[in-house]
């Protein structure tokens, strides 16, 4: 007679409730050297200066540097676009300016974007004005924005459970930020990103879970690659 297997099924898990925007949405994050906050129209001149100081060095990583924010008027348009977009309860993309805490000067931008409510997951990205690179600004800002994103809502954060970061492999400065923060390299996609004037290049995706994040040090825990019990 054929052997009959007796399957024991665990009761199905209930799906988690979709993520919803925290109320209020976090609007200001401070670090030792930086302030992260949404742009205001009074920041237009400083933001334009941060781009215009060496627009060519932002390419090809940031295609908008060639087509957008070419004048003060266009910068005002961008700031207004962000403000109106982020006022919607359905917004899933939030931009933060990176400001010098002492002078108020615009140093770049970062974000919490591509939020997936069903997965409680989001992404981040960043850029720094070309004359202020290699000073740890992106690493400090990105560590702070991920900390806020993974902090529970009841503690003033976004309440996400996972954050990702995508970049071109040839952009070593960008991937270096993810590595300095200890994020796990999860995918390497040959030909996954098109860079204008350079063709298709390998795209990297780094990620970290909330249970793998050291909120005090604002970086991934040291044993993330081995897997952390309870995650």
Observed structural traits:
single chain, 231 residues, alpha+beta, Aminopeptidase, 9-stranded mixed β-sheet, two-stranded antiparallel sheet, 5 helices, 11 strands, 22% helix
Structure at a glance:
22% of the residues lie in helices and 28% in strands. By secondary structure, it is of the alpha+beta class.
Structural description of this entry:
This protein has 231 residues and is α+β, with helices and mostly antiparallel strands. It has one domain (29-225): Aminopeptidase (3-Layer(aba) Sandwich). The chain is built from 5 helices and 11 strands. Strands 1, 2, 3, 4, 5, 6, 7, 8 and 9 form a 9-stranded mixed sheet that branches. The protein has a two-stranded antiparallel ribbon with strand order 10-11. Helix 1 (44-52) packs across helix 3 (72-86). The mean pLDDT is 93.
Indicate the topology.
Elements: E1 29-30, E2 34-37, H1 44-52, H2 64-67, H3 72-86, E3 94-100, E4 106-116, E5 121-124, E6 126-128, H4 137-150, E7 162-168, H5 172-180, E8 184-195, E9 199-209, E10 213-214, E11 219-220
Parallel strand pairs: 5-7
Antiparallel strand pairs: 1-2, 2-3, 3-4, 4-5, 4-6, 7-9, 8-9, 10-11
Helix pairs in contact: 1-3
* Helix fraction by DSSP (H/I, runs of at least 4): 10-25%
CATH class: Alpha Beta
Determine the strand fraction and express it as a percent band. 25-35%
Order of helices and strands: EEHHHEEEEHEHEEEE
CATH superfamily: Gcn5-related N-acetyltransferase (GNAT)
How many structural domains does the protein architecture include? Answer: 1
| Global shape | globular
Rg on CA atoms, Å? 20 Å
- The secondary structure category is alpha+beta
Major sheet: 9 strands, mixed
- The separation of the N and C termini measures 44 Å
CATH second-level architecture = 3-Layer(aba) Sandwich
In the predicted model, the low-confidence regions spanning at least 5 consecutive residues are none
Q: Please report the number of helical segments.
A: 5
Task: Give the CATH topology.
Answer: Aminopeptidase
Q: Tally the beta strands.
A: 11
Mean pLDDT: 93
């Amino acid at each position: 007679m054929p052997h009959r297997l007796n399957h024991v099924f665990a009761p199905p898990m209930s799906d988690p409730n979709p993520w919803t925007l925290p109320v209020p949405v976090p609007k200001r994050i401070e670090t030792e050297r930086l302030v992260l906050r949404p742009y205001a129209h009074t920041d237009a001149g400083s933001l334009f200066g941060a781009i215009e100081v060496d627009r060519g060095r932002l390419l090809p990583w940031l295609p908008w540097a060639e087509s957008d924010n070419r004048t003060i008027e266009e910068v005002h348009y961008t700031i207004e676009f962000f403000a109106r977009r982020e006022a919607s309860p359905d917004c899933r993309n939030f931009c933060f300016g990176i400001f010098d805490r002492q002078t108020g000067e615009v140093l770049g931008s970062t974000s919490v974007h591509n939020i997936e409510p069903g997965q409680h997951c989001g992404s981040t990205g960043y850029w720094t004005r070309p004359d202020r690179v290699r000073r740890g600004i992106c690493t400090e800002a990105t560590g702070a924005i991920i900390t806020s994103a993974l902090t529970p809502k009841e503690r003033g954060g976004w309440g996400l459970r996972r954050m990702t970061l995508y970049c071109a492999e040839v952009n070593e400065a960008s991937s270096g930020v993810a590595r300095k923060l200890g994020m796990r390299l999860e995918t390497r996609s040959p030909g996954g990103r098109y860079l204008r004037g350079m063709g298709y290049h390998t795209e990297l995706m780094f990620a970290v879970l909330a249970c793998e994040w050291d909120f005090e040090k604002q970086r991934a825990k040291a044993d993330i690659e081995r897997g952390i019990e309870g995650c």
